[in-house]
Amino acid sequence: SYRENILKTAKALVEDTKLLVSGAASSQDKLAQAAQSSANTITQLAEVVKLGAASLGSDDPETQVVLINAIKDVAKALSDLIGATKGAASKPADDPSMYQLKGAAKVMVTNVTSLLKTVKAVEDEATRGTRALEATIEYIKQELTVFQSSEVPEKTSSPEESIRMTKGITMATAKAVAAGNSCRQEDVIATANLSRKAVADMLTACKQASYHPDVSEDVRERALRFGTECTLGYLELLEHVLLV
């Protein structure tokens, strides 16, 4: 019932994305119009995706979560894109901010494409688990890119908090192994949803702890390296589950 409306609104958002990117090199008025238009379109898209998720019924909450996660990814990518557009406005073509803008636009289109694939797979019981897993793998890769950037976190946390967050990885790993053994679509969907949260929480806690005032440069580098290695190892596990 809602698929066509979601597809139509998502296409409109892609057009808004193009206007945002081109707007960085044009007038402030055009840039403001593009930003306002994209904000309106993402609001419409979020509403229609929520209606679509609700129409699946409460007996399938994990698939509802997959849809909500997909639109959250698009909204986050749009926010990052608007930020990148703001940074690149009126800058020359070879300015580093222009490369950041192109990167943000690419992530935006990737996430819209991922949303559309998810919407199409929702009613196909044979593929919706695999689709959820593919979306989670893409999400974790994007989170890892943010983790590896030189951007300093807004707040710091204790090493104990970072240790506590690794427990989620242990639970998610057990769930992933069980899903690989059962090959049931619902188990794979539950693994995909749990994995997103577990890895994102671990990366956030790890980076915040590594920038704690009491942490030395050497320890920070090691903590960030192990956070990356843990994520890459977990991605490899999910790729195996996908293969199975």
Automatic annotation (TrEMBL):
Residues 8-119, 129-241 form the Talin IBS2B domain. Keywords: Cytoplasm. GO terms for cellular component: cytoplasm; focal adhesion; plasma membrane. InterPro entries: Alpha-catenin/vinculin-like_sf, Talin_IBS2B. Gene3D superfamilies: Talin, central domain (1.20.1420.10). GO terms for biological process: actin cytoskeleton organization; cell-cell adhesion. It is found in: Cytoplasm. GO terms for molecular function: actin filament binding; integrin binding. Its main location: cytoplasm. PANTHER family: TALIN, TALIN-2. This is TLN2 protein. It comes from Geococcyx californianus.
